[in-house]
């Protein structure tokens, strides 16, 4: 069944991709991040939070085959299309978009390595340091970084506990920020 949905006709079932992406965006837009944890409510701050949540889903689906691998690829494609669309909405010219997209893609994949290492080692201090470097590079000491690191750790655990079949069917759940 899943092969039919995401195999040769992988774009045929947009409903699943759109549902998953909407859930990722909703998780990234939790107001606690911006109001309580001092994540900058700017295009770059929102990119950081969306990147973080996209990373968490990609991290969960990594190593899965079949439909899960297809879902992971379709989601990352949707993410970068959304980022490109956002750049255009911000008034970046057609000439400037590819250069900025390359920079944002490099930022995204650079962060995944740092977050992977910290999660693999279950090192909340390293995760908090990586988050502070990426989310608040201007802040010096960002006191809320450990809160976000705890959230990321809890989200990773919650995603790991979700059945793959549930995710590829269009449902992904993140914890509520501030309760992790």
Automatic annotation (TrEMBL):
Residues 36-174 form the Ubiquinol-cytochrome c chaperone domain. It comes from the Bacteria. It holds the Pfam family Ubiq_cyt_C_chap. Belongs to the CBP3 family. PANTHER family: UBIQUINOL-CYTOCHROME C REDUCTASE COMPLEX ASSEMBLY FACTOR 1 FAMILY MEMBER (PTHR12184), UBIQUINOL-CYTOCHROME-C REDUCTASE COMPLEX ASSEMBLY FACTOR 1 (PTHR12184:SF1). This is Ubiquinol-cytochrome C chaperone. The lineage of its organism: Bacteria, Pseudomonadati, Pseudomonadota, Alphaproteobacteria, Hyphomicrobiales.
